[in-house]
Amino acid sequence: VQLQAYGGGSVQTGRSLRLSCAASGFTVGTHAIGWFRQAPGKEREEVACIPTGGISTYYGGSVKGRFTISRGSANNTVYLQMNSLKPEDTAVYSCYAILESRAYWGKGTQVTVSS
Fold first, then answer.
1. Residue 2 near residue 97 (C-beta atoms within 8 A)
2. Among 38, 61, 62, 91, which residue's beta carbon has the most beta carbons within 10 A?
3. Computed from CA positions of residues 44, 50, 53, 55, in that sequence, does the dihedral angle turn out positive or negative?
4. 69/114 Cα distance (integer angstroms)
5. Predicted confidence (pLDDT) per residue in 10-32, tens digit
6. Side-chain-side CA neighbours of residue 98 (13 Å)
7. Do 8 and 111 touch, CB atoms closer than 8 A?
């Protein structure tokens, strides 16, 4: 199982970014997947996830209405569309998947939002 996040960068307040998480070794459509983020000096925060079954999605309170998680079955990738970015969204974003009650993590990608 491997996960690789990419698509981070530096943007100004109000702009958008789309993060991608390429998965291998399993199918993103049949397992719980999501994104966490961690800013310097802060605790890790869950941003968004799609639970097993994929009927609903979860968003952290600070990103609800601005971020959208989705998955592409054709390329086995999970996306995080981030709109209306704020400086407080600055963090390292990492994707994860749950397989048989075990969490797998990908290397994170840095997102920096300047005012």
1. no
2. 91
3. positive
4. 23
5. 999 999 999 999 999 999 988 99
6. 11
7. yes
